[in-house]
Structure formats: C-alpha cells, structure tokens
Amino acid sequence: MRVMKCIATAALLFLVACNPVDRRPGFWLTGDDAPYPSDWSFTDAHKEIVIEVATPYLIPHSVTIWCGSMNGELYVGARDPDSKNWPGWVDDEPNVRLGIDGNVYEVSLVPLDDPEQLKVLAPYYARKYQLPSQAPAGAPATRYWRVTTRT
After folding, report:
1. Whole-angstrom distance, CA of residue 44 vs CA of residue 9
2. Residue 49 CA to chain centroid, in angstroms?
3. From the centroid of its chain, how far is CA 148?
C-alpha cells in the first residue's frame, strides 16, 4: 500500500511538473483539447500563454510566452530569440501546441519577416504589455510568428 502511494505521489508530481510556470520550463502541456478558434481576441485577457515545441531529443519543451491578437488573429513572440532554444526548434518544426486558460490548441507558426507587418503589429503588443511604441536603442531583438491552423 505504501509503495502504491509513493508511485501515485510521484506520478502526480511529474504531471504537475509538466507545465511551465513563470520562468521554469516544462514538458508536455496538460489541458483540454480545443478546436482552432475563428477569433483569438479572447487571448487579450491573458498576459502569458504557454507554448509546447518539439525538440531534437524527442521530449517536448514548453515555456510561457507573450501573445497579441490583431484583427482576430494571434501572434506570439520571443524576446532575445538567439539566447533561447525554442525559436530554433520552431524553425525546424512549426507545428506547436498552445496552452491558454486550461485549453490546448494544436497550431502552426508562420514567421513574420515583413517589416511592414511588424510595424502594424507593434502597437498591439505595446498596448497590451505597456511597452514603448519603439524599442529603445540596444534593446534585445524580438521575433514574431503568426498562429495558423496546423499544416
């Protein structure tokens, strides 16, 4: 009986440790599978969401990230992307999972490279996160992706 309690406790701790919290990364996301929404503006109420990406070592990696919706579409970003592994893993495998308010969405990410698109997106992020309209000189770079249906 004691062994079963230990196994159950260990399994529970492992499952709890799967989701990232603040700056602590996690593994597999837990939550209810949700269909791709027609309008992502509900994410405006969430300061952080969670992204799960595929890794080269076959164990998913998840972290908390910022997001912004614009005209019903969702965008995610990585500040100082060269100091993180997950943006490169997204380049290799753009199909990811997003965790938002207990729901998990299977989506694909498309990199935003067009300066005009980025210029239009910037005010949405600035408003949501109280950021300056233009990044100060010397600020770390930020990469953005548009969230789309899975490919």
Report:
1. 36
2. 6
3. 13
Q: 106-121 burial, b if ≥16 CB within 10 A, otherwise e?
A: ebbbeebeeeeeeeeb
| Contact present, 49 and 72 (Cβ < 8 Å) | no
Average pLDDT estimate for 87-116:
96
**Burial of 58 per CB tally in 10 Å (0-12, 13-18, 19+):** exposed
Find out whether 43 and 49 touch, Cβ atoms under 8 Å. yes
Burial string for 65-85 (b: 16+ CB within 10 Å, else e) reads bbbbbbeeebbbbbeebeeee
Coil, helix or strand at residue 130:
coil
Instruction: Name the one residue in this structure whose structure tokens are 């893993």.
Output: 89
Tokens of 74: 């969702």
How far is residue 64's CA from residue 127's CA, in Å, rounded to a whole number?
Answer: 19
Whole-prediction pTM value? 0.85
Which residue is it, tokens 């990044």?
Answer: 135
Which pair of structure tokens corresponds to residue 30? 């837990």
Q: Which of the four pLDDT bands, split at 50, 70 and 90, describes residue 98? A: very high
